[in-house]
Amino acid sequence: MSGSLGIGLIGTGYMGKTHALAYRNVHAVMGGLPPVRLKTLCDTPFAKAEEMAAQFGFEAASDDWRSLLTDPEIHIVSVTTPNKLHKEMALELIAAGKHVWCEKPMALTLEDAAEMEAAARTAGVVTLTGYNYVKNPVFKLAQELIAECVIGTPVHFRGWVDEDYQADPDLPWTWRARIEDAGLGTLGDLGCHLVSMAYGLLGPIESLIGDMQTVHATRPMPDGSGHGEVENEDTASALVRFANGVQGSLSTSRSAWGRKNRLAFEVHGSKGMICFDQERMNELQLYENSGPKAQQGFKTILAGPEHAPYGHFCPAAGHQLGFNDLKVIEAAELLGAIDESRSAYPDFTAALEFEKVIHAIAESARTGARITIGG
Amino acid sequence: MSGSLGIGLIGTGYMGKTHALAYRNVHAVMGGLPPVRLKTLCDTPFAKAEEMAAQFGFEAASDDWRSLLTDPEIHIVSVTTPNKLHKEMALELIAAGKHVWCEKPMALTLEDAAEMEAAARTAGVVTLTGYNYVKNPVFKLAQELIAECVIGTPVHFRGWVDEDYQADPDLPWTWRARIEDAGLGTLGDLGCHLVSMAYGLLGPIESLIGDMQTVHATRPMPDGSGHGEVENEDTASALVRFANGVQGSLSTSRSAWGRKNRLAFEVHGSKGMICFDQERMNELQLYENSGPKAQQGFKTILAGPEHAPYGHFCPAAGHQLGFNDLKVIEAAELLGAIDESRSAYPDFTAALEFEKVIHAIAESARTGARITIGG
Amino acid sequence: MSGSLGIGLIGTGYMGKTHALAYRNVHAVMGGLPPVRLKTLCDTPFAKAEEMAAQFGFEAASDDWRSLLTDPEIHIVSVTTPNKLHKEMALELIAAGKHVWCEKPMALTLEDAAEMEAAARTAGVVTLTGYNYVKNPVFKLAQELIAECVIGTPVHFRGWVDEDYQADPDLPWTWRARIEDAGLGTLGDLGCHLVSMAYGLLGPIESLIGDMQTVHATRPMPDGSGHGEVENEDTASALVRFANGVQGSLSTSRSAWGRKNRLAFEVHGSKGMICFDQERMNELQLYENSGPKAQQGFKTILAGPEHAPYGHFCPAAGHQLGFNDLKVIEAAELLGAIDESRSAYPDFTAALEFEKVIHAIAESARTGARITIGG
Amino acid sequence: MSGSLGIGLIGTGYMGKTHALAYRNVHAVMGGLPPVRLKTLCDTPFAKAEEMAAQFGFEAASDDWRSLLTDPEIHIVSVTTPNKLHKEMALELIAAGKHVWCEKPMALTLEDAAEMEAAARTAGVVTLTGYNYVKNPVFKLAQELIAECVIGTPVHFRGWVDEDYQADPDLPWTWRARIEDAGLGTLGDLGCHLVSMAYGLLGPIESLIGDMQTVHATRPMPDGSGHGEVENEDTASALVRFANGVQGSLSTSRSAWGRKNRLAFEVHGSKGMICFDQERMNELQLYENSGPKAQQGFKTILAGPEHAPYGHFCPAAGHQLGFNDLKVIEAAELLGAIDESRSAYPDFTAALEFEKVIHAIAESARTGARITIGG
User: Fold this and answer.
1) Where in this chain does the record put each GFO/IDH/MocA-like oxidoreductase domain (chains A, B, C, D) (predicted)?
2) pTM of the model
């Protein structure tokens, strides 16, 4: 088994499963990557870890994530625990020389994220953050279309990311409503994904003005003991200025009925426009001011093998990638980076930039002032 | 011909024609309204007025709009001239006791609009401003759905209005680029329509922060003499707070390639969501958190005779109203208001509120400060 | 009033109103056409005719359509009565030398339609049939795209036309269910429109095999006296072969819940595809196998002034024509034909070809045999 | 390793890879299934088999598929070779007591398929055919909506399946164009999928009339030696009658530019309608004639955890399954059937019914006669 990369995975929930599935299939899908060995799955209680290790195909189960630190056969650790736990785990894993694939956001506070980023940078391990949507082949197409000036020079940007998991006012209060436990609300859960896409399309955001709101200010306590306060935001919006001079706006809500994963953007350019909506993740909209005026219109481009790495999943266009396939592309990025001794994208350094923006939106919303994003 | 309302129309361009067509057909479409008499059409030069009077079916042509002031057989005058001319015309028409249907925006500056509003209010004539989109039967449906709590309590709002008539950087400079002649840019042309819809859905905006940008800073002079400066904005956006406590955002661009009339909004509610896009003006999207979860989804409601006054145009659903039909509904509102001695909606007083918002966005964009909209 | 064309209109219902509105506005919209004079509106009882004449702006009302035959000031007569009455009216009007705009289908039987066509052809009057959908500017765009080989050579065709006005099994029985009164069912109401579009795109249909079905075999009698038989078809479909060698299929239903006016087609070509749906009548879908593969996709072209005669209604693209505007374009075709002493399209001769197809579908459905359409 | 099911896979192409990926992940996704062991991967030449065995994670490679027959550790064999080879392989595998997951269509001729079906039925092994689209959670939702009478009684059906892999007339001739090698054209590649969906929704088809066409009659030989004949059909259509009395139509093309996987259907019911398009495979359209008329419309239901087994892939709605996930659901069906000693769906017996239909369409197209599908 020499040459293979041993995997530790902390967490067996929503994201934990996507990591497990990605590790299982990345080599078979992509070829040409170092093989992986599913070594240890960590969760609590132990019975849970054991059950899921059997299901996911890990060799071992553990209820002590620190056991991964000293296991020489483990090279990569995925951190998919609640965000509050990321920092401690990541710092110790980095210190132990492990490569780390950490779900987003990196941490509850910008200070914690910065500490993680500094540690990773210093240690020289490979890190990857779970900004899966920038791995979509049609997102890469969007980037290429911009790079190739197909829509000319970008002149304006709009982005939204909405879900409805907190739309129902009658949903009970949970720890997710408490800043100490959850940090930001929709900005941390959803907004940072949008920022990752904005960066990928237009580069850094220089300054912004934000506003935010807790639309359901209290929620019934699950034990029937009255109502608990919702401390973090349900909606947030910002007017942004990119470093390249483009203006734009961002908006996010976790209380948007009917939206299940509406992570959408428009890039307005001097010669055309690109639009995307993750709820139709295999489609990219492109308008070009070219050809006969009478025949101009928005084109719906269906993902296909012309849009790498779609072809690794399926040789036929329009057959659709799914969400879990994006995690496979992430895993390939991680393994490739390790194999080639390069940094992965987006690593902690890149992710820190995204997370600066969501915290700046929150700060601006609190103070009313325009915030300049630190370099 | 006693009992009929005599019409004067100033302007024979884009909007002038829509007014003429609306006057011609409103009685035939709606029934039950005072008959109209197409009396005098004004434009310059006289030959133009004469030609279009023949085409539109006016009894007389004139190159002197002031001739309308003293014509006792003219009761209503439509003002569809360039915005710069609205104020002078409206003030004199009001002073002459004419009812006035004035295209939007009312004026280049808020001060001028306020002066027009005060004059109209004092004179007691009926006024109507050309905010045609709020006359769409499916917009009225949206208002009713909100009023009936079908989507619960509104919690968030988003709106956009985009066209691409200034998207091409190579388009020559025109007077529309000069503030003295044109006033605001996209905010005046497009943004005020969006505000009219936001008001119709959620009521007054209390305060806002805005940003705006001239994305094509100069344009080639038509005579080849270098480049002229574009003084007004191509894009503008704002974070708004409604008086009812809801937050939201507005954004507009006249340089958005591919958008031809994308006047769109989302109203997020505590029980559902409503979405609309004028480019598919016969459709309203509705999501309700009701019924089996497995069967929930956004519904596309096609305009039909259940959505008054659609049935006056066509007894069969889904057969589509067009833009010009909206002007017929406006005309019906005007004639009905005169007939019933009530105010029309949106009259100068209502329109002034919309126009306060676009000027506030521009002011906030210039100063960086949050603007509170005056009562 | 010399030089103007006097209009008689028989019928004040759904189609009658569309004709009245079209006559009222066609000159104002289009310019350059002979003026019209709304002379006499016929309906029964007389009070109804009188009321609607006032609303629609006709000079006179009558409950005797034959009064039109001898009125020398009436040049054109619109026939918008129940289909059963078309033949008698058209034949007498033609014999009286009137130009005739007759709603579709021309008649209940093919024999009657053929008799009407022969009479019109012999008499040399101008006729026009109410196939409004082929007047859509984006339908003309589709025809031009085919003519210019933008999608190469057509290789396949599919078309559908569905509504839901007979979808509810509990709707009461009406005369529309009786062949003697109504003739064909969905084929006559809807199917012939689809055929008109198929012809306009690909030319004559040479032969076909059809099937049809009455899905709601009986309906409750309105007087509560049990159930009445539905004699004509709710659905009908056909496999067709065009004279140019292309195969295709047609299908129609008047019992298709949710479809309000889904008159849709696909033209598959050797280099691309064109798709259309009347429920989004301002859009045409175009796919071209050209340019980079990675950027190919279906384009949504929004109707605009590049698509004549859209610009006569509105100078701005994407602002939407409506159903009634299509009738204005029909009226312009009629007036232009009379003015230029040419035939209008589709006249009785063209329409007879469309109606041969729907009767052939019904005949094939009854006999099971392939039907060759007579020349 | 006792208790696990050993897998042999023949073929490493498009479908071969999907089977490999499905086997790799089905246990991890679903839980509660017998574990699988990826034993032997067969392809030629051996180097290819060896390379792909390494990539896909099989223990052994072979260029002799018959080696699987006698391997006692292999319990299931996937047959993903060219269709021409299915019969021989399946018959020998069945005779050897292996469970068989065979790609569709089962065979080039109906006789061969019938022979395979009889062998499987007699032998009592579990078989599964690769009709992946009926495994889509939203397809199951469609079935449930019909079963629960949400759209009332079905009254009409329409289905299409189009791709464009043979749309370009300049594509070179291949063996796929020769009946001896490939059997049917688009009916075998695509049409049988549509039939599987029609059956799943409305049950057996009783009789039909078909038509078909080779739109590109010859293709350039790859060696430049002139043109070769295309023997099988590019398009095929049929008017069908289901055993339950419903009429409908089917149509398929492999030469439909822009269509990448447009496998779409409409089920018209007495109370509503259901529509689906595989190019947006995570969406189901539902119209119900219920609630206020003014609020009726087609609903777009996004796949989510309410639609089993979506939740096994992702706990969050709207995050999208992909094509390869459908193969995982197929694999789960196969393993579950073996585990529970029941037949899988669709097994060879079910698939034979689907394939009867495509051959009947071809036969009817050749003879012109209505074909009754044998029991």
Assistant:
1) 139-274
2) 0.98
